[in-house]
Amino acid sequence: MDKADLVDIQDVIVDKSLPKEERIADFIRQVRNPYLCKCGNMVIQSVFVDTDVSLAERLAQFLKIT
Question: For the whole model, what pTM was predicted?
């Protein structure tokens, strides 16, 4: 995929007055691909692994080693 074709997450505006389901749908409509977007010049790719470790636990582990 060409980086120029990706939506910059900084340009996405979520209407917080909408119900949760509509906010999610609006976000996905704007970002087009919630698993691949960019933030400025950085490409962001979301990948999920089947594990019992939560994101919060993974971040805590990461912060301990950095």
Answer: 0.66
